[in-house]
Amino acid sequence: MPQPSPDRAPEPLPAVTQDTLIVADLAPRRRPVAKSPSPYRRLFALPGTRAFTIGNLIARLPIGMFGVSTIIMIAASRGSYALAGSVTGTGLVATAVVAPWIARLVDRHGQARIAVPATAFAVLGQVTLLLCLHYDAPDWTLFAAYAATATTPNIGGMSRARWAHLLKEDADALHTANAFEQAADELCYMVGPVLAAFLCGTLFPEAGMLTAGILLMTGMLVFTAQRATEPPPSRDTRSAPPLRARGMPPLLLGLMATGAIFGAMEVITVAFADAQGSRSAAGPVLALQAAGSCAAGLAFGALKPSGPAERRYLWCLAAMTALMTLPLLAARTTGSLLALAPALLLAGMATAPTMVTAMTLVQRRTPEGRLNEGMTLAVTALLGGIACGSATGGWTAEHLSPTTGFLLPPTAATLALLIALTYGCATRRTRP
């Protein structure tokens, strides 16, 4: 058998195999494409943000419990809803006066140093109110005790100030954070009254106030313990007050008109449900409005904003004006609470985007080092609008009709839009 010559070159591989090897060697290797995390996941990936958010939510929930708990507790003890309403109204007035001062101290001395003792003083006022009712003290003591709760710090403003401090170089992330904070507001105002009514009804009338006080103090301690994310105190007193900052007064007027929408809608919906013989259904129906706002806020925060915030604010106000006509149409054309429910759900979807954009403008127009004070002024304007809207809505429902009262929310929204247009709130820009 012949042997192969050692000088003979080896036979080449088949052409197909060579081409296959060359192609396999030169072909790019496919790498798995990593999915981009959601804006909210990136937000809470920052160190310390989850911890202060947990404390913020615990302390924020009682804000929606205090009003209902106070009304139920005083009405059960003294048998007077008029007295209960007057006491809570006094608390709102006291908050409007005291809250900006507390916020100014927070800006100058730090959140932990001021918020903890201020919260403790507010909880002491709640305990005093309970004792006054238990021992049948004179009515004037109820007003004094509840006014003392006005020292409660604006936990939402302090949380937004932390986000602004952490994300001052990332406008998109700050937009997402503001949307989350607004959704948290809606959630707490949706769950808080229901929880308070449940506790007061199933346990004892004081249960709602006691639970709210414990949650407030616990949440504030957890929140302020996160010192790594706390904005540094600003001792620079030379900057102008936020109220005199350029573009701030018309913005606050617009927020007051927006608050009137909320106050009027709440009272009118309760009156409308009562006229239908379903007063107990008013709470769940109003919760749908808050649910719509919460869902829209989370969706709005996941979007990347385009264009200046001033322009977005105009569009949001226009959308809110249009959507607030839906409850009016539902009440007038059907007179049914069942038809009003989805109308309120849709109307609520314009609330959170409007509030998120408004708070963004407040942050930009507030002078450096006074952010807590600026945010508290915004909340105070909202509370003032809510009080005016509640009073006007109650008068309209009683002297005209609940259906006629549904004219008030779109009217207030139109007023907010006109303020923005008239005073140049959509075009004045103080910061890029």
TrEMBL record:
Signal sequence, renumbered to the chain: none
InterPro entries referenced in this protein's UniProt entry, alphabetically: MFS, MFS_trans_sf
Gene3D superfamilies (UniProt xref): MFS general substrate transporter like domains
Domain of life: Bacteria
Methyltransferase is among the record's keywords: no
Pfam family, any one: MFS_1
Keywords (A to Z) from UniProt: Membrane, Transmembrane, Transmembrane helix
Regions that span the bilayer: 51-74, 81-102, 114-133, 250-275, 281-301, 313-331, 337-362, 374-395, 407-426
Protein name (database record): MFS transporter
Lineage per the UniProt record: Bacteria, Bacillati, Actinomycetota, Actinomycetes, Kitasatosporales
